Each structure stands twice: as structure tokens, then as C-alpha cells.
Amino acid sequence: MKSLKYTLLIFCFAILFLNTQCDEDDDVQPPCGQSVVVDSGFYQSAESDLFELTDFQIEGNCLNVNVSSSGCDGATWSLVLVDSGNVAESFPEQRYLKLVFSNDEECLAVISQERSFDLETIQVEGSNAIILNLEGLEEPIDYTY
Hints:
Immunoglobulin-like, about 15% helix
């Protein structure tokens, strides 16, 4: 009977010990929404419907933007982040981007949406930071990875 109690006690401590181990998934960042489209032809020819970039921030490798425009509910909106494909050889390197917005909704309400873009595809090999020149913003965005 004593050996059964000791076995149970050891088993309970083993379970508690295993339960305190770190999850490897804790360091994994959640994925961003869309990938950045790198296409110089699309960058040069793309035209947007009217919208306002009301806020942005970089979290990890994600560029989160808030946009507002007139519309019914924004369900049919399309927003694409396009990179010119050109990298300015400065320190740090610079990339040129623009948001391409499409809105076919004909309601007069002004609504906002948040979208997220994965910046990993525009990282420059051998560097850990780049400057993002987003069309329409007066100041560039510093992106460190």
C-alpha cells in the first residue's frame, strides 16, 4: 500500500513538472493578413478609389493599417499593399510602397476597417531594418526585423 502511495505521489509530481514546461508555440507570432505584392508594373499603373489612411503601426512583421471611406459596410472593399520592386541602396535600405484601394459601394456612410500586411516578403537579405516610403505619408516608416 505504501509503494502505491509513493508511486502515485511520484506520478503527480511528474505531471506537475511536465505541465510547467514552456510551449515552443509561445514564441510564434500570429500570421498577418495579406502578403505584400511586389510588382513594378502594378505599382506604376495602379489607381485607387478615395480613402483615408487614419492610422498605422508595425507589430512584429505585420503592418496594420486603418482606412476609412464611404460605403455600406466595407464587405466588398479591396485593399492591396504594392511594392515597387526597387530597393534604394541607402543605409538602411529603402522600399517604395502604395496602398491600392477599390470601393464599389455607393452608400454615404463613412466607415473604417483595419487590415494587416505581412512585411516578410520585402525584407532585404543581410539587413535587419529598412525604411518604408508609403505613398501618401509625409514621414517614412522604420521597419526593424
